């Protein structure tokens, strides 16, 4: 098992290039199932999760060709309707083939993704939406089976603004007959990116980024070329790293409009954040001011940045409160940070962080993707050498993370 070793005490400076967004690439690759012919996707991050969905698309009968950050997919040969357990268990985002398969083949059998470290992760909203579009949904032997003679437009209200739920229903509605209204949808930049792709393919999706989507079904969609948007969570991770280490870092291609909540909180914490023509520059300053945060659906503060921002608060002046409202168990990183000397206590869905003078290095365990990144951040400011185990979690969502941190002057290396 690989480990990552971080020597604390370095100040980060220079430029870092943000990769394409994992959480935009996954639904966009799934959307290639909606059309016959070759789609070409540029700026796709090279990550384990992208490999996994590539395997799934091939299993379903599509042709997939990968050349660095460019991936081509042709789903003309789509024939299989089942997403097997051994692929879905590796990556719950495999559930994103549910909508396209139902739309194209009128049939889908997808292993239920099951929970993960951060929560139960139900897909009830995905399934209810497909039923309202005219599909029948059955659960058996750990699989969800969806059948539909024909999908018809419907007026659907989501109980919760689920990101992948919105994406699944957008894709299904594009090939349904008539108009679908999706209400209380997710508004993340990745939703807007998927809508851009579907419209480029000939779909009719209006309102992306707002709480209501209006989707007019079409007979067929056409293959396109499309470039993946930058990863706002990777960008935010490097922005926090600069603030933590009193650094001066330009995060290239980071999009300010995608990160307004984080930018505002970093400024309240005392960092200088400036929008430049090719990215966002962050200059850290100590003492760090303590700031309260509450995670919310976009445009609120992103849950995927909660662990990283908590590290910034561990050595801030005073007390801060971080409330996690999206997932029921997303404080797994807290016990690891406490082992490094942080003073954090949890009650219900809130963590209370009392700033300490410094963190001290310790061997720690990565658990979920973003919690793992926060351990690297903690290592940057801890006294000594922090050893992070189970780094495969990190490789799922961060491309060449140790190279990118090393380029900025951090002492981060991987040990096989
Ligand atoms: C997406 O997951 C992201 N993954 C997650 O990023 C991200 O943390 C999450 O959105 C929230 O922003 C991808 O885009 C591939 P949700 P998703 O459905 O769609 C509840 C990462 O680190 N819910 O928006 O699975 C659910 O329990 C990952 O890259 C229902 O109740 O999240 C959760 O509490 C981690 N019923 C909340 O909604 C449903 O049918 C948000 O879940 C669906 C969701």
Automatic annotation (TrEMBL):
Residues binding phosphoenolpyruvate: 22-23
Reaction catalysis annotation: phosphoenolpyruvate + UDP-N-acetyl-alpha-D-glucosamine = UDP-N-acetyl-3-O-(1-carboxyvinyl)-alpha-D-glucosamine + phosphate
Keyword Cell cycle (UniProt): yes
Pathway where it operates: Cell wall biogenesis; peptidoglycan biosynthesis
Subcellular location: Cytoplasm
Principal subcellular localisation of the protein: cytoplasm
Any one GO cellular component localisation term in the record: cytoplasm
Top-level EC class as recorded in UniProt: transferase
Any one biological process term the GO annotation gives: cell division
Binding sites annotated in the UniProt record for UDP-N-acetyl-alpha-D-glucosamine: 92, 121-125, 304, 326
Protein name stated in the entry: UDP-N-acetylglucosamine 1-carboxyvinyltransferase
PANTHER family from the UniProt entry: UDP-N-ACETYLGLUCOSAMINE 1-CARBOXYVINYLTRANSFERASE
Keyword Cell inner membrane: no
InterPro entries: Enolpyruvate_Tfrase_dom, Enolpyruvate_Tfrase_sf, MurA_subfamily, RNA3'P_cycl/enolpyr_Trfase_a/b, UDP_GlcNAc_COvinyl_MurA
Residue ranges constituting the Enolpyruvate transferase domain according to the UniProt record: 6-404
Similarity field: Belongs to the EPSP synthase family. MurA subfamily.
One Pfam short name: EPSP_synthase
Positions of post-translational 2-(S-cysteinyl)pyruvic acid O-phosphothioketal modification: 116
């Amino acid at each position: 098992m690989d480990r990552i070793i971080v020597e604390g005490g370095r100040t980060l400076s220079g430029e870092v290039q943000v990769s394409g967004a994992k959480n935009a690439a996954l639904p966009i690759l799934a959307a290639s199932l909606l059309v016959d012919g070759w789609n070409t996707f540029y700026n796709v991050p090279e990550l384990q999760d992208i490999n996994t969905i590539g395997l799934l698309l091939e299993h379903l009968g599509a042709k997939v060709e990968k050349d660095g950050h460019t991936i081509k997919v042709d789903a003309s040969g789509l024939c299989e309707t089942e997403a097997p357990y051994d692929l879905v268990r590796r990556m719950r985002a495999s559930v994103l083939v549910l909508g396209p398969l139902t739309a194209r083949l009128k049939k889908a059998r997808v292993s239920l993704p099951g929970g993960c470290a951060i929560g139960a992760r139900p897909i009830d909203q995905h399934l209810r939406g497909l039923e309202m579009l005219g599909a029948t949904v059955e659960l058996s032997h750990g699989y969800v089976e969806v059948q539909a003679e024909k999908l018809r437009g419907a007026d659907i209200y989501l109980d919760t603004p689920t990101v992948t739920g919105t994406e699944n229903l957008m894709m299904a509605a594009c090939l349904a007959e008539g108009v679908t209204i999706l209400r209380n949808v997710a508004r993340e930049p990745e939703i807007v990116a998927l809508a851009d792709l579907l419209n480029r393919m000939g779909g009719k999706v209006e309102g992306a980024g707002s709480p209501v989507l209006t989707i007019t079904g079409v007979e067929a969609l056409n293959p396109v070329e499309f470039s993946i948007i930058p990863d706002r969570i990777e960008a935010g991770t490097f922005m926090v790293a600069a603030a933590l280490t009193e650094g001066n870092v330009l995060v290239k291609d980071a999009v300010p409009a995608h990160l307004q909540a984080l930018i505002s909180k970093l400024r309240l914490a005392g960092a200088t954040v400036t929008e430049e023509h090719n990215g966002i520059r962050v200059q850290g300053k100590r003492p760090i001011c303590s700031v309260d945060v509450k995670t919310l659906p976009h445009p609120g503060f992103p849950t995927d940045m909660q662990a990283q921002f908590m590290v910034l608060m561990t050595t801030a002046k005073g007390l801060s409160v971080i409330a996690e409202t999206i997932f029921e168990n997303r404080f797994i990183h807290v016990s690891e940070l406490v082992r490094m000397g942080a003073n954090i206590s949890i009650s219900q869905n809130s963590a209370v962080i009392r700033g300490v003078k410094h963190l001290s290095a310790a061997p720690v365990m990565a658990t979920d993707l973003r919690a793992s990144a926060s351990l690297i951040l903690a290592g940057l400011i801890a006294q000594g050498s922090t050893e992070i185990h189970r780094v495969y979690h990190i490789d799922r969502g961060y491309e060449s993370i140790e190279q990118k941190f090393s380029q900025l002057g951090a002492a981060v290396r991987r040990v096989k």
